[in-house]
Structures are given as C-alpha cells and as structure tokens.
Amino acid sequence: MDNNLNSENPAVTFNPNDFLIVPARSFEDLKTGEIFRDPSRTLTNAHSAAFQNVSCNNHPVHYDNVQARKHGHKTPVVHSLQVQAFTAPGASMFPQVIGEVFIAFTELSCKFLKEVNADDTLNSELEIISPTSQGGGKAVVETAARIHNQNGELGLSDTHKYLLKTKHSS
C-alpha cells in the first residue's frame, strides 16, 4: 500500500477543479474538422420501452410487429428522438473538453436518413464545422453530428450550436 496518500501528506492538496478527465481547452483551442466520437451503442427493445415510457409516444410502430409491418417497416422502429438523443454531446469527450467555457446548447437541426431498429448498433460523432467568435467574450461553435449504423450507413445527420466563453470573457 502506498504510504504517500494525500491524506497523509499535508503538502499535497486536492483541488476538484484540477480533477479533469482531459485537460480543459478554450474556445480558441478548438479546430475546424476536429471530431469527438461516442462509444458505440447497440439498441434493444428495452431501450425503446424505456424511451416510450419517458416520451409517452405510444404509436404502435414502436412496439408492435404487426403494426410496424403494416406501415412498411420490417420490425418496430426506434423512436426518432431517441436516435437523435444519441448525438448528445455528453456521451462524447466534447463536454469534458469545453466544460470550463460552456454556456449553453442553443440550437439543433436534424435529418433522419435511415430507419433504426432494435439490435442496430449506433456510432455517433460530433465534428467541429464552424467556430465563430461573437465578440463580448462569447463564441458559437457549430458541430455536425452524424450517426452511422453497424453497416456503415448514415442514419442521422444534424447540426448543433453551442455558446461558449472566449479567453476575453470577464
């Protein structure tokens, strides 16, 4: 056992602001084209049921095989907003990187391009496409968010905008 633990060494102090997963970066450190990937996730019927409970979206194409096929789907379809939620920046390292300068998530737009069903594995990423200083100590970062399935097919494409502090914030 290490006898040099912080509690036994008064010269070493713990500062929670220094206990970061990755070094904090400023707005000015972000680069166009930089990509932040999320771990892949395989959706199950249990995920869809949980989302159905939270969203109160009870359309039978999301849980009934017969109704799904009647509407042209091979199996029940995962809720579109549930798929979109997989682009949430919190699942990637992005909020760890911008945590000290983050002000707000201000905007998003989304296109659903491919049906998602239970047992599909989703791979999502955020790419910085437009970091723009707004003056007054604030900046907007626009990201492209994409989700590919296990076959490499693009299932969702959207954009997010975040308001950040710049180095010139007071």
Strand content: 25-35%
C-alpha end-to-end distance: 45 Å
Assign the CATH superfamily: Hotdog Thioesterase
Structural class, please? alpha+beta
Helicity, as a percent range: 10-25%
CATH third-level topology = Thiol Ester Dehydrase, Chain A
InterPro entries: HotDog_dom_sf (IPR029069), MaoC-like_dom (IPR002539), MCH/BMMD (IPR052342)
Protein name: Acyl dehydratase
Domain MaoC-like: 38-132
Textual characterization of the structure:
This protein is α+β, with helices and mostly antiparallel strands and 170 residues long. It has a single domain, classed as Thiol Ester Dehydrase, Chain A (Roll), CATH 3.10.129. It has four helices and six strands. It has helices spanning 45-55, 65-70, 80-85, 94-98; strands at 35-37, 41-42, 102-112, 121-135, 138-148, 154-165. Strands 1, 2, 3, 4, 5 and 6 form a six-stranded antiparallel sheet that branches. It is elongated. 21% of the residues are buried.
Task: Give a quick set of tags describing it.
single chain; 170 residues; alpha+beta; Thiol Ester Dehydrase, Chain A; six-stranded antiparallel β-sheet; MCH/BMMD; MaoC-like_dom; HotDog_dom_sf; Acyl dehydratase
Quickly describe the structure.
This protein has helices at residues 45-55, 65-70, 80-85, 94-98, and strands at 35-37, 41-42, 102-112, 121-135, 138-148, 154-165. With 170 residues, the chain is an alpha+beta fold.
